[in-house]
């Protein structure tokens, strides 16, 4: 088993204790082990970040851009090695892992370009002989907490903009999937990122949570994960002047209207629902179908689902990977059992897949459920697995009402040939991301990303919108005489 060190203060460091990282395709197989840092180690990481910020905020944006460009090049050169590790520790297919690796390089390249631009606005001033402008400045040391489902692209999405704008970071990858984040850190380190600007804390959350969240030098926390944990962090910050960017849960819906291209809609819904075994925050988990085409669409959808091939992500033939841990597998199976108890009908799947070697992995068959009522937990609560529920409605207005009947508001899609319905849906869907005749997934690096309601906080990720979180605005007025 490989032993990996973590990056703190510009050095690769070990620890007295270690965490084993397991392969969800076969939990008997260790992928690597990483340091289990202590609370004192976390405090030292913040010490380094404080010193790193003092240097980095004064570093030329052009030098930051150069480092990012070089790091992106290194990731592309190492794509096969990195993608193999993403698959090994997370379970997703090599195709998905390769796409994730290349997209992480895209984030670095995009923010390298943005770093070269000035962030500010020239303003008119009522006073004569004054020239006034705003400028954006880094805010300081930011804590980054990323999840296990996208172990490389989520750190890239968070770290690239905050580092590009001159902040320093302490980064806590998910305990289940730390290897991918270490690849990202190594690329930046090898590209010449100064010591202390990025510090990676691998460790057991329960042992280091207090040191992570309560350090007085934190000025911002960006977190992706469950609402339970996100809300706990938010409460912990209630009496502190710390920004919180949260990308939390979702219960994303796709609407299929009677005029839609039904075969195309079925293919798009399956791609959005079962990619990464449904373990994406933007995965479609509810389908609202106009009653006139419900039976036909259901037949097409189930046929597409039954073509999926369950297997390890390392097998090129696999199109549905294992879930990322035994805990996640068991959680999904419990949700399925509860749905059946509440009256849902299993149209396909509905159980664990334990055939042959898969008995040692975290496999669940791709599942479609019918006869689901709006009151059922499976309709309202996030499952985060390969589970899709169907519901028939009468007309456009009832479809929009069904989409919006949720505490979440991350992503939604509509499939229709009617331009009026498309525009109305875009206006009326209570979601941060809306797609027309496309998937709820797949939002590129330059597109602002984030949800409404319980799906997240007001600070968006990606694009230029993320600058609202990672920078502060200063107004400067210059009197030039006369």
Can you walk me through this structure?
With 482 residues, the protein is of the alpha/beta class. It is 38% helix and 22% strand. It has helices at 39-56, 61-77, 79-90, 94-115, 153-164, 178-190, 205-214, 227-236, 262-274, 294-305, 326-341, 377-380, 396-404, 419-428, 467-470, and strands at residues 2-3, 6-8, 11-13, 18-23, 26-35, 120-123, 130-138, 141-145, 168-172, 198-200, 218-224, 243-247, 252-256, 284-290, 345-348, 367-370, 387-393, 411-415, 433-436, 471-479. The strands form five sheets. It has a seven-stranded mixed sheet with strand order 15-16-17-14-13-18-19, with helices on both faces. Strands 10-9-8-11-12 form a five-stranded parallel sheet, sandwiched between helices. The protein has a three-stranded mixed sheet with strand order 1-5-4, with helices on one face. Strand 8 (141-145), helix 5 and strand 9 (168-172) form a beta-alpha-beta unit. Helix 1 runs parallel beside helix 7 and helix 3 packs antiparallel against helix 6. The radius of gyration is 23 Å and the shape is globular.
Features:
alpha/beta, 15 helices, 482 residues, five-stranded parallel β-sheet
Short summary:
The protein contains 15 helices and 20 strands. With 482 residues, it is of the alpha/beta class.
Shape: globular
- Oligomer kind: single chain
Structure classification? alpha/beta
Rg over C-alpha atoms, rounded to the nearest angstrom: 23 Å
Per DSSP, what share of the residues sits in E-state strands of 2 or more residues? 15-25%
The average pLDDT is 96
Q: Count the strands?
A: 20
What is the number of helical segments per DSSP (H or I, 4+ residues)?
A: 15
Main sheet, how many strands, which sense, barrel?
Answer: 7 strands, mixed
Unreliable residue runs:
none
How are strands sequenced across the largest beta sheet? 15-16-17-14-13-18-19
